[in-house]
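retry 2 of 3: previous attempt timed out while embedding flavin-adenine dinucleotide. Reduced batch size to 1 and resubmitted. Inputs unchanged:
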Amino acid sequence: MAVTYVDHMGSDLAVVNAARASFAQVSEELSDKDVGLIGFLMRERHASPFEHASMTVFVDAPIGVAREWMRHRTQSFNEFSTRYAKVGEPTFYVPPPEALRTQVGKPGAYHFEPLDEAQAEAVREKFEAAYRASLDAYHELLEQGVARELARNVLPLGMHTRFYATANLRNWLNFLSLRTAENALKEIRDEAAQVEALIEQHFPHSYRFWVEYGRGSL
Ligand SMILES: Cc1cc2nc3c(=O)[nH]c(=O)nc-3n(C[C@H](O)[C@H](O)[C@H](O)COP(=O)(O)OP(=O)(O)OC[C@H]3O[C@@H](n4cnc5c(N)ncnc54)[C@H](O)[C@@H]3O)c2cc1C
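retry 2 succeeded.
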């Protein structure tokens, strides 16, 4: 599972200049006053200036994680198609030992605990066997002449997919707010942490104030 930087547009300066459009002013370089303005915008949840900078990443994730990711309607996506291309040598998500967990408690009020170490290897083998069986069935169906768009139905949620995701800074911060939270799925949290490092790198002042004012949605 990995998030790879592709491109970005704008910077903290783009946020400042969008905000200063109200006064028909433009900054060429970020001054201390401009940095203060970013803090003000973040504190007051004056969100639209943060929509003038954006970032694109390339994501490699299990389909189940991608489904959660793509609930973020304000992002733009392009994904590898199992309808048009034959699945070559797919990667499947076998949870590493530290991610193996059991669910304790009632729906809506449960928490996770590490799975008994004695069970771990058998559980990982079960994942691998199920993936092998699905992939074998997929290849057999293709050999029998079944169309790719039908044969793919036997492939599992744990198979990795790859997609481009683009969002503006405001919506990346919303994504991070939701997907780095303690109650988010561990696997999407791990990927969101990689997005967060890129946001910090490319939009350091906006990021810093977002953290300072509580990592909320704008
Ligand atoms: C821990 C967790 C558990 C979840 N569990 C479930 C679940 O069980 N079932 C389920 O279906 N989903 C679930 N979701 C998905 C969740 O409901 C959201 O769809 C998802 O997090 C995307 O968030 P978003 O709408 O803020 O993002 P985006 O779609 O990117 O939207 C960004 C913002 O734009 C605005 N917006 C976008 N579209 C609309 C609209 N149509 N109307 C009004 N405002 C809009 C909102 O302000 C929104 O916050 C879960 C999410 C999390 C984080």
